[in-house]
Amino acid sequence: MMDPKELTKTAVKAIEEKKGENIKIIDIREVSVLADYFIIADGTNASQVQAMADNVEEALAKAGCPCRQIEGYRTANWILMDYGDIIVHVFSREDRLFYDLERIWRDGKVVERPEEL
Questions:
Q1: CATH for 4-116, options being 3.40.50.1370, 3.30.460.10, 3.30.9.10, 3.40.50.720
Q2: What distances in angstroms separate CA 77 from CA 51, 73, 96, one per listed residue?
């Protein structure tokens, strides 16, 4: 299995392939035991949000990291995908603004580009 940094890069690439927008990586290693990284992205409609989640699930499964838990897939407002060391949050644009995870996790370090991991 890949290390968390490589898994994060793979997940971001999978989101980009489905035209995910406003992709953010937050390094939460120093502030939480939940995971090492959060990946947050949004899409313009439910179909796109589900397509991003599907692509992440497929890419990480190929990398030997099956998803432990997926929540919110049916409604596709906020899909949470738990991979242990990384947690992927794929939102509709409205729900992302409403829940504002970046504000809640502002003590984490924002990683501007996956190459910086």
A1: 3.30.460.10
A2: 13, 8, 8
Q: What is the pLDDT of residues 63-73, one digit of tens each?
A: 999 999 999 99
- Quick one: which of 51, 48, 55, 38 has its CA closest to 93? 48
Closest to 52 in 3D by CA, of 78, 26, 34: 78
- The two tokens of residue 62 are 């190929």
Contact 76, 46 (CB under 8 A): yes
pTM: 0.95
- Interior angle at CA 1, CA 64 and CA 106, nearest 5: 100
